[in-house]
Amino acid sequence: MRTLKHIAIAGNIGAGKTTLSELLSRHYNWDVQFEDTTMNPYLSDFYDDMHRWSFNLQIYFLNSRFEQIMKIRQGQQTVIQDRTIYEDAHIFAPNLHDMNLMTSRDFENYFSLFKLMASQIEPPDLLIYLKSSIPKLVHHIQTRGRDYEGNMSLDYLKRLNGKYEAWIDNYTAGRLLIIQNDDLDFKNNPEDLGLIIEKVDAEIHGLF
């Protein structure tokens, strides 16, 4: 466990990444790095006008997560990270480009910067993917009631889910644990959380 530095949780909007990050950090006594939503100066504007703010938002997330990874690798503690830099580049930015919400010029500029950053970092020691269906995602989004997510379309979520599945199918950067999340309630059911912890234990032991 001494050499384990970076665990990351990936998943679509509403998959439960933040909740699982908190629970696993408490169980394993890991530090936790959350996705920067409360301090993000572009997020609310983005959901009101995606075309105008898409590039700004993605650059902000790219920079924020790159900073997180650099601190994780330079630090002494094991850290669990809520969402990865790879999701920004392989899911969210390409999806915005496909929907004509980000220009080709902006996307190419963005992706060029991502490739440069990615060449300077290591992938997570373990990537945990929360695989969730659209109804599960919608339920979570509605339950937490974030104002800036109120204008999110069902088509947007479906497109993201498709890109997540394609990305995970081709993920080869490091160790991967896929958790089918639809029938789990790890926030309220200790048995469900225990099942996930057993799977994480098995993956961690396989790293050494």
Brief description of this entry?
It contains eight helices and five strands; from the N terminus they run E-H-E-H-H-E-H-H-E-H-H-E-H. The protein has 208 residues and is α/β, with parallel strands linked by helices.
Question: How would you characterize the overall build of this protein?
Answer:
The relative contact order is 0.19. The protein has a single domain (about 5-205), classed as 3-Layer(aba) Sandwich (Rossmann fold), CATH 3.40.50. The protein has a five-stranded parallel beta sheet, sandwiched between helices. It has about 210 residues and is of the alpha/beta class. It is globular. The protein contains eight helices and five strands.
Features:
single chain, 208 residues, alpha/beta, Rossmann fold, 5-stranded parallel sheet, 8 helices, 56% helix
Largest sheet: 5 strands, parallel
Estimated share of beta-strand residues: 5-15%
User: What gyration radius follows from the Cα positions, in whole Å?
Assistant: 17 Å
Strand order, main sheet: write it out. 2-3-1-4-5
Describe the secondary structure blueprint for this structure.
Blueprint: E1 6-11, H1 17-28, E2 31-33, H2 43-48, H3 50-74, E3 79-82, H4 85-98, H5 104-118, E4 126-131, H6 134-144, H7 154-169, E5 175-180, H8 190-206
Parallel strand pairs: 1-3, 1-4, 2-3, 4-5
